[in-house]
Description:
Blueprint lengths: L1 H61 L6 H21 L1 H4 L2 H16 L5 H25 L6 E2 L2 E2 L1 H27 L4 H24 L4 H19 L7 H29 L1
Antiparallel strand pairs: 1-2
Helix pairs in contact: 1-2, 1-5, 1-6, 1-9, 4-5, 5-6, 6-7, 6-9, 7-8, 8-9
Organism: Gilvimarinus gilvus
Protein name: Nitrate- and nitrite sensing domain-containing protein
Keywords: Membrane, Transmembrane, Transmembrane helix
Amino acid sequence: xxxxxxGLMLFVxxxxxxxxxxxxxxxxxxxxxxxxxxxxxxxxxxxxxxxQQHRGLSSGWLNGATELDSKIRKLQGDIxxxxxxxxxxxxxxxxxxxxxxxxxxxxxxxxxxxxxxxxQNIKQHNALIQSLLYLIDDMAxxxxxxxxxxxxxxxxxxxxxxxIAAECVGQLRAMGTAVAASGECSVVSRIRxxxxxxxxxxxxxxxxxxxxxxxxxxxKLIDLNHYVAHTIIQREQAANAENYFALxxxxxxxxxNQFDQAIDSARRLS
Length: 270
């Protein structure tokens, strides 16, 4: 009887130990997967920023700001490198159908944007960037990033809300750069610029309810809205495409700075 009891106890202990070891392995595998996802999320965020810059610079170039040509060519090289680095860093990404479609779209846009009309150039960039935002969301879910909390809030607020806000500012940068380059602000452009300013206000209000910004980041957006209203739309003084692009970029970088801080916080928690 004692031998049976001892055997049963040994079986229970062995089984319990195996369950604990399996749980620890799964936890380690999950953490490893999350860390890979956070690294890839950061890479894709940089690519997103560069594609948004290309949209703005190419829009200004198409409207006559030929001084932006060297910046466009340098940026295209940066995008190619960032794209290659991202593909090499992740087997999940390298075989992803949406990612392959993004690469193909970018290669065609890089080679042919200078033959497009302004509106078509912006639309093509918008579609490409939206595809990348969808890819980021797919990647985050597949790498189990939804459950990571930063300051008590799910990390998905960082890539969804903050990236949406950054994209709204990016669209305003592209449109404003084109208008500044042309030296004219038509009624249609005025309507679009005002609409984008409203979208930015709505998007940042949503994002900042969850993750309040630093004062200087909020001030950059205030300065950008003031410039759009008084210099781009009302033409109270001459607008410069390169200067406007730089001002809008500072506003976007403030949002991306918040995003990067959230990712860094998540890495420390993982």
